[in-house]
Design brief:
It contains 18 helices and 13 strands. With 416 residues, the protein is of the alpha/beta class. The chain has 2 domains: 130 residues, Rossmann fold, CATH 3.40.50; 264 residues, P-loop containing nucleotide triphosphate hydrolases (Rossmann fold), CATH 3.40.50.300. The structure holds adenosine-5'-triphosphate and magnesium ion.
């Protein structure tokens, strides 16, 4: 059966229509494009509201606000189009501004980007992925992105994050991205020896799509897929915010859950992760300096647009017995917000770490530790997804200045 793709292009540039026609002319007999062109934003919105549009292409120019408005206006329509923006690299004020702009648009609900002049393979891959491969009129909704962050090393971000990912794999497909780029432990904790890492993804980033990603991940016996951290510092240097943004945005189309483990450093990579996360779990343990550092981190998160509804606090007991005598109420008072989850100390977490079997799956009976992780898993499953980071700054700002602005006052870094 021939598939008709109703395509609307919003542009002042007739050259874009010519490029699109040329890029799709040999796409196959089973697909037909019906092309509409609008120059005016209001008319384009009215068109897409009143008639079904499968693919809406908006030419960015130097201003991303039009594409953002379009995404917002079309969110509630009966037949939401796949919204794609085209851009010319040279119209942005450097790579920082470009990647900040693209991240912001992804958060607003754009599906993808095409750089101009349009390339035939890129356009065809996008159409295949977004409109044909699924055989549906509407694109699949994106998976949930969950990140685990903390202001200090050794508080249990990886332990809680990885075990949550394993727990989630019972409810859906999961990709665990080990973005603790310099010190990734996920492969070791899962007892895996992956062939490819995030550094391989970085090399292929320009042509990364779901199919390529599927070839680079390693499967764990729980069913979870892992994209591990690079194996050395030189490889790690290749993984920047553009790479991580691309990985997460491709992965969230392919998996029900994308779980991201991070390193305790608020750099542009972490910021890109936060921007794309539906839910961010701030993990802290019960030591005084960590609680102060976490209070500051939580303030920073709010300043960079991670609002309360997308933020959770996990108090992870890494000390045995009564710990350091600090109660969840003490922690909540010092953080000036509730503690959402308390994970108890468990001696076998350590032995599980050494055996390469996550504690979550090596247990036969349900203990307090596992019940706590189950609650984190349930929270991740049931939390309603709201479009990510709508309250983020609307102007394009290079990431570095956002970090500077958000961290005046300082975040604590590094191991305790
Ligand atoms: N609830 C717990 N009970 C006992 N030990 C724990 C618990 N949580 C974590 N640990 C242990 O604490 C150590 C640090 O944990 P983990 O590596 O998860 O921390 P992290 O915050 O990811 O550290 P980094 O910032 O270095 O990546 C590990 O040895 C881990 O096994
Ligand atoms: Mg870690």
């Amino acid at each position: 059966m021939q598939r008709t793709i109703q395509t609307l292009i919003l542009t002042h540039d007739p050259g874009l229509v010519t490029e699109f026609t040329a890029a799709t002319d040999d796409i196959g007999d089973d697909v037909r494009f019906v092309l509409h062109v609008e120059e005016d934003e209001r008319r384009a919105i009215r068109h897409a509201t009143e008639r079904p549009v499968d693919l809406l292409i908006v030419d960015l120019g130097q201003d991303i606000r039009q594409a953002k408005r379009l995404a917002q206006e079309l969110r509630g329509v009966d037949h939401p189009p796949v919204l794609v923006a085209t851009y010319r690299r040279q119209e942005f004020d450097g790579e920082d501004a470009l990647s900040a702009g693209l991240v912001e648009l992804l958060r607003s609900g754009l599906r993808d980007f095409l750089s101009r002049p349009l390339s035939r393979p890129e356009v065809q891959a996008l159409i295949d992925r977004e409109l044909l491969a699924r055989g549906e009129q509407n694109p699949r909704s994106v998976g949930k992105v969950l990140s685990f962050v903390g202001s200090k090393g050794g508080v249990g971000k990886s332990t809680v994050g990885i075990n949550t990912a394993v727990g989630l794999s019972r409810s859906g497909s999961v990709l665990l991205v080990d973005a603790s780029i310099q010190h990734g432990v996920a492969a070791d904790l899962l007892g895996l020896t992956p062939e490819a890492t995030l550094a391989d993804v970085a090399r292929e980033v320009d042509r990364l799509d779901e199919r390529l990603l599927a070839g680079l991940v390693t499967e764990h016996s729980s069913g979870l897929h892992l994209l591990p951290a690079p194996s050395n510092a030189i490889d790690a240097a290749a993984v920047d915010e553009a790479v991580i943004t691309r990985v997460i945005s491709v992965a969230r189309r392919a998996y029900d859950f994308v779980v991201v483990d991070t390193f305790p450093l608020l750099d542009s990579v972490t910021l890109a992760i936060l921007d794309l996360s539906h839910l961010t779990f701030t993990v802290l343990n019960d030591s005084g300096p960590t609680i102060n550092g976490s209070a500051e981190l939580l303030r920073v998160l709010e300043r960079v647009g991670v609002e309360r509804s997308r933020s959770r606090v996990v108090l992870n007991r890494t000390h045995p017995g009564r710990g350091l005598g600090i109660t969840p109420t003490d922690v909540a008072t010092r953080l000036d917000r509730p503690v959402d989850h308390v994970v108890p100390y468990s001696r076998s977490v350590l032995s599980a770490a050494n055996s390469g079997k996550p504690r979550f799956i090596s247990l036969n009976r349900m203990g307090a530790w596992q019940r706590a992780i189950n609650r984190v898993v349930k929270d991740a499953i049931t939390a309603t997804i709201s479009p990510v980071n709508e309250s983020a700054p609307t102007e394009l700002q290079p990431d570095r200045s956002r970090i500077q602005a958000a961290t005046t006052g300082g975040v604590e870094h590094g191991a305790q």
